[in-house]
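hi! just following up on the protien thing from before. the input was this:
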Amino acid sequence: MGKRLYGQKPKKRSWYSIIRKNVKRVFWILNPRYILPPVIFVAGILSLIFTLTLSMSSMDPVPIEEYRNKSVEWSGAFAINDILHNARRSQAGKLKYPQAVCYDNYQPLVYVAEASGKISVLKKDEYGQPGAGEIEYLLHVSANPTAMRCSMGLLFVSDPKLGLHSIDPREKKSAVLVPLDVVTPPIRALSDAVLSQKGIIYLVDSNLKYGAGTLVKQLLEGKCTGRIIAYNLVQNTSSVIKEGLCTPTSVEVTTLGDELLISEAGRGRVSVMQINNTEIISHEYYPGLPGRLVSNRRRTVWLAVHAVKDSFWEYVIPRPWLRKLLGTLLPESMLRSLAFEYRATVVEIHQNATAVESLQDPTGQTHDWITDVAEGTDGLLYLGNDNSEYLGRLGEMRPDSEGGQKHQAPPPPSGGFDFDPSQFEGKLDL
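and the predicted 3d structure came back as:
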């Protein structure tokens, strides 16, 4: 009964009956008896993964009072400007992630270290502009070299896997000058190295757990286990001269050679340390987290600063479990996009770490992330990065009376590498 007989026309269904039937189907699908079991199963699996991840993770976040001094704002010497927005993209498409750069004052030549470990020299172009001409390949070191300095016709490259390399660009030869096991425990995250006029190499070890290229993970854990190691090039001895630093990323020697500037990204400051007694005598805070420190010929220092997303840090700092979860599950590239704003900032500072002025690209359209800075003899700035295929260049060459470019041998820069290499004959054998 109720079935349509053969040859009988079907009855027309009203819109009301159609809608009513579909509504019944929807409520049947949403019936808790059918949807709760799979939801509970998926939730259980996710909870198990979450628990196992936290229990097996080696990350051990500690309480952090402040990740930076929030009273320091983008004003005064840090006032927003667009100077770096006008910087050129030099060697576009010919370089891949030139994250370390240095300028040889006496050639003049620009050297770059790419993320792949490729070391190259950028020669002058037909107009005499350093860094704008032919690219000559020199050699390879391990991937992700963290820093590079020029001195005495040699390159000193911080290799996070092997140690500090000394490279002769003319002979295209390399040797490990300072291995990672030069101290105990061995250097874990070699971030920078600078050579003083007295023949002492100061190396930066950012932390004792994570390797180089894990800045955000180090910041999320919050431990202050960074070190400064002093290696005597003449006596071939080494020692840890400072411990307990909060994620140090770079170091520079002052003009007189009696103090070190140390950028502590874990606290958003640059610390001034006396070398003779290894005491921190002052701190200067910045609106972002400090990176590379590089002296220039005016006896000031260039400092790369990374702008942070305060909303992210203010949310995760009081939640150690969340810092542990993020640091365990997410890769460094994703963590960096969450933690930092992609806008480039370079600050010129005095040798007491106080700011002079800042150069910025607030939109990040031209330069959004700077890992290294080098200043040429004629005031040109070369800007390294680890996420673009070009080298930043700010400024223009001044032509001389003959229509070429003016290059004069500069005086010894503040701190840095320049001294009589004959003092260390036989110490830099390649």
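The radius of gyration is 28 Å.
The longest helix spans residues 32-56.
cheers
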